[in-house]
Amino acid sequence: MVTLRGWVVMNFSLGLIILLLGLYLAGVTIPSLGQAATILDRSAPVCIVEWNDDFVMWDDLDHCCLEARKQLSCEREKRLIGVQEVTEVCTTGRTSVKFHFNEKAYSYCQRQVIWS
Predict the structure, then answer these.
(1) Cβ-based burial of 49 (10 A; exposed 0-12, middle 13-18, buried ≥19)
(2) Which of 59, 71, 77, 104 is geometrically suited to a Cys-Cys bond with 45, CB 3.0 to 4.6 A?
(3) Nearest 5°: phi and psi at 26?
(4) At 34, is the pLDDT very low, low, confident or very high (cuts 50, 70, 90)?
């Protein structure tokens, strides 16, 4: 037989799960805990620089993060460039240089001191 305390713990846990699933269905993203999302992501970090409709892969992720941080804004924009899927773009405007990142590269950049 389950005690009253057991029922309280189960109801609280189920309520928390319902709340998290409701937020997920509403489109609210909850930040990942620690680096679990980065560790589980097996893809390579990707930084692609766009200038006048020319796209160039930039292998130096640290410098790419530095230059992207100098831009005015970074926004979520899911896009396929060649065979690479990118999800974030950092830019100062419509006609400037754009820095495109996949999830792993953008997560790496956000953990850098310059991003704070």
Answers:
(1) middle
(2) 104
(3) -80, -5
(4) low
CA distance 86 to 83: 10
Decide: 88 and 106 in contact? Cβ < 8 Å: yes
Give the tokens for residue 27.
Answer: 């489109």
Which whole-number Å values give the CA distances from 77 to 2, 35, 47, 87, 114, in the listed order?
49, 22, 14, 5, 22
The pLDDT-based confidence of 37 (bands split at 50, 70, 90) is: low
- Predicted confidence at residue 32, as pLDDT, reads 65
Cross-strand bridge partners of residue 81? 84
